[in-house]
Design brief:
14 helices; mainly alpha; 2% strand; globular
Length: 435
């Protein structure tokens, strides 16, 4: 924990850690990209046409000034963004820790337990979330995709924290007494869990959520126009790639199962076994935290997935990338389903100014939505202490009724998009008729 260090050493160590994180973020942005794997990071193998690498290139922040010599290859100002990212990490890591210690998430007076220990737990857990969201944001800006290296890694880390360190969850004020006590949020907050025990039904729900998540990650190509049955068979064939059954000369080479399918299949087996073991071995407080993470993962991913499906059907084009689905599932696993809902509501407001500027300059209205989900999550963390007391009573006290309201809102959204698409189509037909 940072608090284990002498006071005079904490800040220098945190700044060094920030520099290392900044270097890693820049490496990951260009290494994990799906389409634009540009060897910009000095820790990547340089392009053949690039200038020879110098040892000074690997000096954080200042090394990018020397990289200006590759501007003709990567663009006039390619070095500015990675330099600013490393500078932001240098300053941001110690600021984030000091903000937590100073009561950024909740007051020290309301926390029962070791304050330095819980601040260290929050620092590590939400630090991982912020770093992964930063990487995903810049990759999404570059190519409008969010790689699985970001979202899958983050979701697994969130589930591990939830099962092993339940105190990492966002703190909420609850309990009785003169001074309210801060406790970790759970899936029923702000309502009480009552006498509910997490037995076999909850374990099966967690397994089902994990299974659907793995299936969603599988490489598959849905072709719904051929019908549900054939489409499911096509998706299965695309994910598993079974052996050819014909002897045609052009089809004699057996196809191999993709490595990602084998990796995900292994992850599924390990994950299901781990869930079963967790329900047998972990105490109830850990199971509450783990189950909350699974429900947050399902709600966050399911909400964006539902809107993606509705928008795609109504508008006849992809409304959101699937990376947005897995990103929001990761956010829900870290922060809970309540926070995932708030993040989704705040994301359009975070994007509004950028969209307006982009439309005025380029006349393009399409944007990458992932960066604004990440911005919404950051805003939520910064304002959590002030926001939760308001929304807990005004919104989440409704409990299951809130989910019914959300379901109705999705139906209304579908009707609105279908109506707008119909009106747009009729106007286009009238315009063609006039010509």
């Amino acid at each position: 924990m940072p608090s284990d260090l002498p006071n005079w050493l904490q800040l220098p160590v945190l700044m060094v850690v920030g520099l290392a994180i900044g270097v890693f973020v820049n490496w990951a942005i260009y290494s994990w990209a799906m389409f634009l794997k540009r060897p910009i990071s000095p820790w990547m193998t340089p392009a053949a046409e690039a200038s020879p690498r110098l040892w000074t290139d690997r000096i954080p922040i200042f090394g990018w000034l020397g990289r200006r010599r590759d501007s003709e290859l990567f663009g006039a100002h390619f070095w500015v963004r990675p330099m600013l990212i490393e500078l932001a990490c240098l300053l941001g890591v110690p600021f984030f820790y000091l903000w937590l210690v100073d009561g950024g998430l909740t007051s020290q007076a309301t926390w029962v337990g070791n304050w330095d220990s819980i601040c260290g737990i929050w620092f590590y857990a939400y630090g991982v979330l912020l770093v992964l969201m930063c990487i995903g944001t810049f990759i999404d800006f570059d190519e409008k995709t969010i790689p699985d290296e970001v979202t899958v890694t983050g979701t697994i880390v969130a589930l591990l924290f939830a099962g092993l360190v339940p105190a990492f969850r966002l703190p909420v004020l609850g309990g009785a007494g003169v001074l309210p006590v801060a406790e970790p949020i759970h899936y029923a907050s702000p309502n009480s869990l009552g006498s509910l025990h997490l037995g076999t039904p909850a374990m099966l729900v967690a397994m089902l959520i994990f299974l659907i998540w793995i299936w969603a990650l599988m490489p598959k190509l849905p072709v719904w126009y051929v019908g549900l049955g054939k489409s499911v068979r096509f998706m299965w064939a695309h994910a598993v790639r079974p052996k050819r059954k014909t002897s045609c000369p052009l089809r004699t080479v057996n196809r191999k199962t993709p490595a990602v399918t084998l990796l995900l299949a292994g992850l599924l087996v390990v994950g299901l076994a781990a869930i079963a073991a967790a329900w047998q071995l972990l105490p109830e407080v850990n199971l509450i935290s783990l189950y909350s993470a699974f429900l947050g993962m399902a709600f966050g991913g399911g909400l964006v997935w539902a809107i993606r499906i509705i928008g795609t059907i109504a508008l006849q084009k992809e409304a959101m990338g699937f990376g947005d689905v897995t990103l929001h599932a990761m956010i829900g696993a870290f922060l809970g389903w309540q926070a995932a809902l708030l993040v989704f509501v705040m994301a359009p407001f975070a994007a509004l100014l950028v969209v307006l500027i982009q439309f005025i300059v380029t006349r393009q209205s399409e944007i990458a939505f992932g960066p604004y989900l990440s911005a919404g999550a950051l805003i939520l963390l910064v304002t959590w202490k002030q926001m939760w007391p308001i929304v807990s009573e005004a919104v989440f006290r409704l409990g299951p009724v809130l989910l019914m309201i959300l379901a109705g809102a999705l139906v209304l959204l579908a009707l609105m998009l279908v109506t707008l698409s119909f009106i747009k189509g009729r106007l286009y037909e009238d315009e063609l008729a006039d010509q």
